[in-house]
């Protein structure tokens, strides 16, 4: 059994991304990080045109279904899940591109009140978290995205977030039922306060 076979089997059976340092433990650290990365690159090339892809995420490597197959898998669901509302996606985009931000910052950019259920939904999904508190009256919580957010979108870092002219993310990546209190659109974002997509962390 070659090292590449061992790495492949470990990644296919793992429920979470595996960083290089963890993969090295499979070989009692006798395989260098450089060698592990070379094996990963070869595996990535081997799986490139298959239904599964080996991808590098923010906290390691994992196999995942090819993104173009997502719509096909949705056909297996008896009921197609509703998508996030425009308001919810605008809120998430502001957090992603302007983090860390407070709820007040989001409301100032959108020009409307943020539905607390929307923030709670993203927190429960593990996409955003409180990373601190602003030293201002009331000490409002500062919100930022998580590694889970990056992993679910197949990104290694915030620098890979799409720009304003990029193709939209596949629907199936963002499909999720909203609770009734969060499903209603809170209103469009005023054009004069559009998200500054160039301000990436």
Structure write-up:
The protein is an alpha+beta fold and 201 residues long. It folds into 2 domains: 3-65, Winged helix-like DNA-binding domain superfamily/Winged helix DNA-binding domain (Arc Repressor Mutant, subunit A, Orthogonal Bundle), CATH 1.10.10; 86-193, Arc Repressor Mutant, subunit A (Orthogonal Bundle). 38% of the residues lie in helices and 11% in strands. It has 9 helices and 4 strands; from the N terminus they run αααββααααββαα. It has helices at residues 3-13, 20-25, 33-46, 70-74, 86-98, 103-110, 116-125, 147-152, 180-183; strands at residues 52-57, 60-65, 128-133, 141-145. A two-stranded antiparallel sheet has the order 1-2. Strands 3-4 form a two-stranded antiparallel ribbon. Strand 1 (52-57) and strand 2 (60-65) form a beta hairpin. Helix 1 packs across helix 3 (33-46). The longest helix is centred in the N-terminal third of the chain and has 14 residues, at 33-46. Residues 170-201 have low confidence and may be disordered.
